[in-house]
Amino acid sequence: MTASFEDLLPGTTRALYHRIAVAQTEGRTPSLVAAVVRGGRTVWSAGRGTAADGTPGDGTQYRVGSITKVFTAVLVLRLRDEGLIGLDDPLERHLPDTGVGEVTIAQLLSHGAGLAAEAPGPWWERSPGELRPGLADVLGDRPVLHPAGRVHHYSNPGYTLLGALVEKLRGEPWEETLLREVLEPLEMTRTGVRPRAPYAKGWAVHPWADVMLPEPAEDLGIMAPAGQLWSTTADLGRFAAFLMRGDGRVLGPETVAEMRRPAAVPAPGGWDAGYGLGLQLFRRNGRVFSGHTGSLPGYLATLWISAEEDVAGLVMANVTSGPAVGQVSADLVEIVAEREPRIPEPWQPLSDVDPALLELTGPWYWGPTPFALRLLPGSGLELTALAGAGRTSRFRAAQDGTWTGLDGYYLGETLRAVRRPDGSLSHLDLGSFVFTREPYDPSAPVPGGVDREGWRPADAHPPR
Q: Are residues 242 and 183 in the same domain?
């Protein structure tokens, strides 16, 4: 008999609603909407306040600001996965004559290119896009502030360049590519570059009085790939599920996992905060969060994901400042994760196994240090340190009979099973390290050799 725990418990949903109610009241925002995604679907959503002449719901649009950058990053990684670009390619190779063509695509994705944070001229978020008709108007006379690859410096112009790259290689406007390659496959029918009713109007709230001022909703023009989009909790919930699990119609699970890994020089605070390929990263209470914040005049938004917990929380509000939507979004994830911990998938035996792979499993030793090698589904392997903290990594099988590290110290490194001329298993070679079946096995080619007299008591050969 299998139990079903797809829906959240009443106590959990009340705690979630209480959290956003406090945020809307104390943050003094006209309206606020939120949702939680678990198991690939939205399991809770709610609205608070008044927007679009009523209580906002799943279909009410809000502007999501820099969450747009994640969509742009997805388009760029699709180009990479198709073999049209490499992440280490200089921008000049694909988009010439920008004046900053030596920076790489990976550096632009992770805000490590050293470009200025903002465009020159009037405050671009509150001025018409017509004021910036070309990339020269976005980059200005001094686009580079830091050496590329040395400093994490958030850059809106950097994502404008990535949007221009997409347009150049696809031969069509950025928004048309986004619609065809991401929004339509993920059925995000209420996400786009312009608002469609019902949508929440943007407001600024006076800091010392309960009065409001309407904010302009400008078309950002060429800077749209950095912050133009409008969306809903229903649509962002679908996008959150995609960022946790992948979707073969857009990006596979390995690529979205790559987006969630640190790719830049860590922001202040070390790995407690960082940036992946289009995703902000941080740690809180032992959990790793990925996602993005967003803000434009009149709007705040945040989407945070805990891939390990398989939970995402998202919050949007129609106010320039006030509620700490980033903190609220993370709180929603933790409320669910702590009250209703993830139930693991049921254990099932492998349907088929190669005896040669099964032979690799069991204890191995790096010098005297014990490890265990386990077989994973899909011919993958997991190397686990058995003596306290150690270099644990998972490996993906390659077509040439080797394995490539997926995480940890051995990320990207190659694991080989080395056999003797008679076919028997000799040792493992992992990034030049030799792993043997016995500690310092004298029959294996351990670098530096193994003393011929073998293991001995401490006083067997006193120092000379």
A: yes
